[in-house]
Amino acid sequence: MQQAQGHRSGRGGGRGGHGGRGGGHVHDKPKKEAILNLAKYVDKQIRVKFMGNREGTLYWHLIAVVGTLKGYDQLMNLVMDDVEELLHDPSSGNVTGERRTLGLAVLRGTNLMLISPVDGFDIIEKYV
C-alpha cells in the first residue's frame, strides 16, 4: 500500500486539530469575565483571609494576613511581599492586635476566603 507524501493513514487526521471529530469547525465562545480583577491591586496593600489551623491549636479559624500583592494566576494563587499575619489568641480565637512578619509568601488560591484592599472596598456594579 503506497501513501501519498505528507498524508497519514488511519483515523483522526493527526495533530493540529483540523481532522477527526467536529469537522474542523471553530466555535467562538464568549470570554468569561472575571468577577474579581486583581490586576488593579498589584503593588498595593491587600488583606487576605483564608482557612487555616495554626500548629498547636485544636480549632480551625480564619487566618488573616496583610501585604503587598506582587502577582497572581488564574487559580487565584497569590504572591505577596511584606506579609504580616494578624495573630489570634489560642484560647478564644480572637485577634490580639499583634502581628508576625512573614516577608515574601505564596498563598494558595484553594484556601482563600476573602481578598480586600486595605484602603477600602470597591462595589461591583454588575452584581449589586
Any overview of this molecule?
The chain is mainly beta. Strands 4-3-2-1-5 form a five-stranded antiparallel beta sheet, with no helix packed on it. Strand 2 and strand 3 (78-88) form a beta hairpin. It has strands at 45-52, 61-72, 78-88, 95-107, 112-117. It is built from no helices and five strands.
Q: Ranges with pLDDT <50 over ≥5 residues?
A: none
| Spatial strand order of the main sheet | 4-3-2-1-5
Largest sheet: 5 strands, antiparallel
State the total count of DSSP E strands. 5
Overall 3D shape: elongated
Please work out how many helical segments DSSP would assign.
Answer: 0
Helical content class: under 10%
- Write down the overall mean pLDDT: 77
Give, in order, the helices and strands. Answer: EEEEE
Terminal Cα span: 67 Å
The helix-and-strand class reads mainly beta
| Beta-strand proportion | 35-45%
Overall radius of gyration: 24 Å
